[in-house]
Write a structure and sequence with these properties.
Blueprint lengths: L1 H22 L13 H4 L3 H21 L7 H18 L6 H8 L9 H13 L4
Length: 129
């Protein structure tokens, strides 16, 4: 008799918990708050293109001077900063070589504006399109 009461009580408890949880309004559970899966993460093609561009950028910088990519994260960060400046310039490349030389100074000190111009060319051809 005791086991029948225990099973019945546990069944009622489980049913009550299930009904309670299905009626709860959890934060972010509204349909208007949900993003479609495609918008939440990049597609494989976009991801592959971004990775390829970064690899090509690092390869191009290495061809210019291997010291530029000794610390790859520093090079990637500097490239990102230079890309921002390239986009701001809207085709007016005057002074971008010096900007690139300054941004890449942590990767390699003593860069000239002419070397910076070569860096800008590599970035325009790879990641700053």
């Amino acid at each position: 008799m005791r086991s029948v009461i225990t099973r019945t009580a546990l069944g009622c408890l489980a049913l009550g918990v299930a009904l309670t949880l299905t009626s709860c309004d959890f934060p972010g559970s509204k349909s208007s708050d949900k993003k479609p899966a495609a918008a939440a993460s990049p597609s494989d093609d976009n991801w592959d293109q971004a990775v390829d561009a970064e690899i090509n950028m690092l390869s191009g910088l290495k061809d210019l001077d291997p010291d530029l990519i000794k610390d790859q994260q520093t090079a990637i960060d500097a490239a990102g900063e230079v890309c921002k400046e390239i986009k701001k310039s809207k085709g007016n490349d005057a002074g971008l070589g010096q900007v690139a030389a300054t941004k890449f100074a942590e990767a390699k000190s003593g860069l000239t504006a002419a070397e910076g111009d070569k860096i800008v060319t590599v970035l325009k051809d790879t990641t700053c399109k």
